[in-house]
Design goal:
This protein is of the alpha+beta class and 98 residues long. The chain contains three helices and four strands, in the order ββααββα.
């Protein structure tokens, strides 16, 4: 059967870290295949994220005023007075308008 697309189905796995069940979705399986990953994940997303963030300093946020709507904007960089800063909603709206 050439040219047939492989069919993936959601699969329930058990996390080696916390012992909880998690779903290895069809979409994730397709992504793994496309990237050439040979093994299924051994940890759930929460445990993978916790491991990835372990030892990292917590992210610092800065609160400023949105240049578009005047609302609160929470950003991960120190705002400077020479460049406008937008809240998430206004940033998305501007990005989609381009």
């Amino acid at each position: 059967m050439t040219g047939a697309e492989e069919v993936f189905e959601d699969e329930t796995l058990v996390c080696k870290e916390c012992g909880n069940e998690f779903v290895f979705t069809a979409g994730e399986q397709k992504f793994y295949k496309e990237k050439g990953f040979m093994n299924k994940p051994k940890s759930c997303k929460a445990c993978r994220d916790a491991k990835k963030n372990a030892g990292r300093a917590p992210r610092e946020y800065f609160i400023t005023t949105c240049a578009e709507c005047g609302g609160e904007a929470k950003v991960t960089f120190q705002p400077s007075s020479d460049r406008p800063v937008y809240c998430s909603a206004c940033f998305e709206a501007r990005k989609n308008a381009q």
